[in-house]
Amino acid sequence: MPKSPPSPERRHRELKAQIAEIDHILPGSINVVMNRCGKPGCACHADPPKLHGPYVTWTRKIAGKTLTRRLTPEQLERYRPWFENNHRLRELISELQALSLKALEQTEGWDLKSTGGQKKPGRRGR
């Protein structure tokens, strides 16, 4: 027999517990690239090319401005769990928000998806 999903209240408690377990987080995105340089005789222009890199960059926004920092491969491995924690935290928060919206809809009788938060219209007899 398949296991039924947890109740919304239980799932809410589980999400809060999972959020509390998260350690360091780093926001932003990681990009790993291989490049060609501008020197025509370089091996990066050969066939097949031997590209330069890998170059790892960490990009994030601070006060509306994009900040990019180059990371060494060692730094990437050291901080990868922090980036993964940020991704996981965002997933958990999204699920917690969805549960909260559903609870609000049920408590207030609102349909937040189609009526802009207004109560569902009652049915009128014909």
Mean pLDDT: 89
Shape: elongated
The helix count comes to 2
Number of strands: 3
**Order of helix and strand elements from N to C terminus:** HEEEH
Portion in strands: 15-25%
As residue ranges, the low-confidence spans are: none
Largest β sheet strand count, sense and barrel closure: 3 strands, antiparallel
Radius of gyration (CA) equals 24 Å
Strand order of the largest sheet: 1-2-3
Q: TL;DR?
A:
The protein is α+β, with helices and mostly antiparallel strands. It has helices at residues 8-21, 73-108, and strands spanning 29-35, 52-62, 65-71. The protein contains two helices and three strands; from the N terminus they run αβββα.
Any overview of this molecule?
With 126 residues, the protein is an alpha+beta fold. The chain has a domain at 19-99. Helices cover 40% and strands 20% of the residues. The protein has two helices and three strands. The chain has helices spanning 8-21, 73-108, and strands at 29-35, 52-62, 65-71. Strands 1-2-3 form a three-stranded antiparallel sheet, covered by helices on one side. Helix 1 packs antiparallel against helix 2.
Q: What are the SSEs and their pairings?
A:
Layout: H1 8-21, E1 29-35, E2 52-62, E3 65-71, H2 73-108
Antiparallel strand pairs: 1-2, 2-3
